[in-house]
Specification:
187 residues, alpha+beta, 6 helices, 9 strands
Length: 187
């Protein structure tokens, strides 16, 4: 079943963010673009490479009005310990959400009950709280923050310009398409 246009459910979790523990709830997400970036666990192998990749591009996500929420089933205490222990994780300026009760990972359908961890899932959520793009990777395959940024930018563009669509590899400023009868069979 597709998650596209699914409204995220209510939640309230703790986060480790900029040296403090802070609550984050659905109301904090509404009114802005967001990425929920689920990963299996702190103190692992592929996860820190992905989170560092996102940290390196975080200013660009902020420039386009998009917040990043990294999410694992670890507690906020474990997020702090990992932040203190890892040079890669120390670069993170976005909130690291703790989901030990699995409220988020179950709502986004990425919870692996047998293992007690989340799949490697990425969800782009619009300002109305609806999922407009997502992908779920196998646990041993890392994601690309550059492509995620491009995908968010494309989602934002079509959100603003409902009569235009973004072709493959579209970048901001590039030509878009206006679906019409005249284009059928011409591309």
């Amino acid at each position: 079943m597709s998650m596209i246009q699914k409204e995220i459910g209510p939640f309230q979790v703790q986060a480790y963010h900029k040296g403090a523990f802070v609550p984050v709830c659905k109301a904090d997400v509404l009114g802005q673009w967001s990425v929920f970036f689920f990963y299996p666990a702190d103190f692992t192998f592929v996860c820190p490479t992905e989170l560092e990749d996102l940290a390196n591009l975080y200013p660009q996500f902020q420039d386009i009005g998009c917040e990043i929420y990294a999410v694992s089933c670890d507690t906020h205490f474990v997020h702090k310990a990992w932040h203190d222990a890892s040079e890669r994780i120390q670069k993170i300026q976005y909130p690291m959400l703790a989901d030990p009760t699995h409220v988020l990972s179950q709502d986004f359908a990425v919870y692996i009950e047998a293992e007690g961890v989340a799949e490697r899932g990425t969800f782009v959520v619009n300002p109305e709280g609806k999922i407009v793009a997502y992908e779920v990777n196998a646990g041993n395959v890392g994601r690309n923050a550059d492509e995620l940024l491009r995908k968010v930018q494309a989602c934002q563009f079509v959100h603003q310009h409902g009569d235009e669509v973004c072709p493959a590899k579209w970048q901001p400023g590039a030509e878009t398409l206006k679906p019409s009868l005249d284009l059928v069979g011409q591309l």
